[in-house]
């Protein structure tokens, strides 16, 4: 899964994940979580991202 960090309008950060659905070759992007500090967002990206 590829994870992207984006800044929200309220100054907090959200994580967006891009992943393949099954083995179909179809990729989806979803908001994984929101309202994070930048530090926490980076920790989660490092832990779960590729």
Topology readout:
Layout: E1 2-7, E2 13-20, E3 27-36, H1 38-48
Antiparallel strand pairs: 1-2, 2-3
List the defining traits of the structure above.
50 residues; alpha+beta; 3 strands; AP2-like integrase N-terminal domain-containing protein
Order of helices and strands: EEEH
Question: What's the end-to-end separation, in Å?
Answer: 6 Å
Helical region count? 1
Helix percentage: 10-25%
Strand order of the largest sheet: 1-2-3
Strand residues, percent: over 45%
Structural Rg: 12 Å
Query: Which spans of ≥5 residues are poorly predicted at pLDDT below 50?
Result: none
Rough shape?
A: elongated
Write structural notes for this entry.
This protein has one helix spanning 38-48, and strands at residues 2-7, 13-20, 27-36. The chain has 50 residues and is α+β, with helices and mostly antiparallel strands. The protein has one domain (2-48). A 3-stranded antiparallel β-sheet has the order 1-2-3, covered by helices on one side. Strand 2 (13-20) and strand 3 form a beta hairpin.
